[in-house]
Amino acid sequence: MVVKPARTAAVALISVTTLGIAAPVASAQVEPNPMVAGQRVSISDDRQCAPAGAARAASTLFGSVVLRPGERGMAARARVAERATPGRYKVTIECAPGGARFTETVTVRGGRGEGVNTAQAAGGLALLVLAGGAAYGLRRGVIGRS
Q1: From residue 104, how far is each of 18, 56, 58, 115 by CA, in Å?
Q2: Per-residue pLDDT reduced to its tens digit, 104-141
Q3: DSSP of 32-63, one letter per residue?
Q4: Angstrom distance (rounded) from CA 125 to CA 6
Q5: Which strand (E) or helix (H) includes residue 22?
Q6: What's the rounded mean pLDDT across residues 27-52?
Q7: Contact assessment for residue 81 and residue 37, using Cβ atoms and an 8 Å cutoff
């Protein structure tokens, strides 16, 4: 009996696909992704650590945080470090000490997540001046006369 390479490849592909579907997919959930330095992010275990009753997330982006029970399993909020540079970072969740571990790779983009930069402050001030001028003109009757 001659085994054809195409048949062998098809059987191997079906076997790997079946194993992949049957295996649970465990990952850390970090949102938003991508993120920017200084931004607050939500971290969850995607309901993987509930049986352990405890979980901790760790990353160079925010250090180590304890996850608490929530709507989406064990979850926490953390702030990305202000000094974080653009790039890819790993976030690892460990279910209870010595328990299951899983990792998510997240992306940090350039820019800042919170706060007001100079251009935003100047734009806000310009809008405030325009609004004040319009209010003054309306009260004095300068605007709106025909």
Answers
A1: 23, 14, 11, 27
A2: 999 999 876 555 555 555 677 677 676 776 666 677 77
A3: SSSEEET-EEEEE-TT-STTTT-EEEEETTTE
A4: 69
A5: helix 5-22
A6: 90
A7: yes
Q: Which residues contact residue 43 at a Cβ distance below 8 angstroms, ignoring those fewer than 6 apart? A: 28, 29, 30, 57, 65, 67, 75, 76, 77, 78, 91, 93
State the Cα–Cα distance between residues 71 and 57, nearest whole angstrom.
17
Stated pTM of the model: 0.59
Asked if 103 contacts 28 with a C-beta cutoff of 8 angstroms, the reply is: yes
**pLDDT tens digits for range 46-90:** 888 877 788 999 999 999 999 998 877 899 999 999 999 999 999
Question: Which residue, among 101, 130, 126, has the nearest Cα to 28 in the 3D structure?
Answer: 101
Residue type, 123: G
Q: Give the whole-angstrom CA distance, residue 108 versus residue 57.
A: 17
